[in-house]
Known about the structure:
27% helix; 14 strands; 6 helices; 2 domains; 9-stranded mixed sheet; alpha+beta
Amino acid sequence: xKFALVNEQRQEAQPNLFGACPACGHPMLAKCGKxxxxxxxxxxxxxxxxxxxxxxxxHRAWKGHFPSEWQEVVHQGHNGEKHIAxxxxxxxxxxxxQHSHIKPxxxxxxxxxxxKLIWIVDGTRRKxxxxxxxxxxxxxxxxxxNTFLRKVFLDDCALLREWSDSRAAVFFDFGKDLNLFCLIxxxxxxxxxxxxxxxGMLINLLRGGNMQDFEALLQDARASTTARGR
Length: 230
Ligand SMILES: [Zn+2]
């Protein structure tokens, strides 16, 4: 984790620092080695949040686009279950940055735990994904006059297929030189909507933009995907 409580204050890991987990209160050790990014780990290695993924530079770069008090926010569900959201905005949107493979059951649990969820998926982990996605996008059909929105076939792209039944907004990040792409699908239809989004646009939107427009955009795309599927 990036933050632990040191004298009740959230702090980043520094050599020889001891802290406590903001979610469970367990002692945490600052891990400041040469290989992995500096981070906090639960003493004894146990992790209180089974959804927690080891952080990479990629995670940290994404978190760093948002105020530190929005990062690693402990979120408690109605049943008392606690999880640490990578980022939670002041408008209640949770961002989860996913680098490694995630099992469908865990993804679905997170989809239902957070009511306003945006996934940002590292699209560079598997080499074939970028190529497959590029093909799917270039063969997609533009929707109306909007050159940033296309209907695409999901079947030929593993990444799109794997995420097509998520009820959240799923953004794919293919590296900092490329735009982000947001998938809206219903998990049944072979077609989904994909929006091309600049990174800056998404970050600005989340940092204080009008999220109602974004929600309306998602709803419209979802409604038209569902209508097309009938
Ligand atoms: Zn903990």
